[in-house]
Amino acid sequence: MVRADSRIQGLTGLTGRRVNVGSQGTGTRATWDAIEAELGWRDEERVRPVAMRAEATTSALCRGEIDASMLIVGHPSPLVKTQQGACPINLVAINGPAIDKLLHYRLYYQRGTIPADLYGMEADVPTFGGRATLVTSESVDRRVVAVIAKAILVHAADLRALHPALARLRQRDMIIDGLTAPLHPGAEQVYKELGLIE
Questions:
Q1: Predicted local distance difference test score (pLDDT) of residue 148
Q2: Structural domains in the chain, sorted by start
């Protein structure tokens, strides 16, 4: 997010700017560090990182204490709506060759779009985000995992209707896209029962 009067229109517009990139150890900071590694900016080009909690950025952005604030959220987000209510903002596209490279090597991220109608914007905003993965220990009883996996898979349509962030949730994609750990035997059993894998 940037103030509407900032003239920042893309990722490269952040060079040398004060950007809230989140605190060390947060997903936001880890994602920014991954972006910056792919950008390969020299010291004078790098952003001036600020570590703020997301809820503290609203007034800081409006007062010009920071130039941009990076958020990793599901959309629509109450934080974005609160920021919009505090002062005029734009959502900046996060795309380009550096992001293409990042997505190629870090499969737990995926390309995405923030639909214009969610925040009353003129156009959709290209972006990316993390893939959500439900994980468990391999020591958990396979019957327990099977019950949970089946409930999720059988009710995928209901989940899609619950929140716009889940609108593209598809059963087959859950076994292919962003699988960051081996399938638990209980989950594998359910996928086979439902004919999603052989």
A1: 96
A2: 2-130 (3.40.190.10), 142-193 (no CATH)
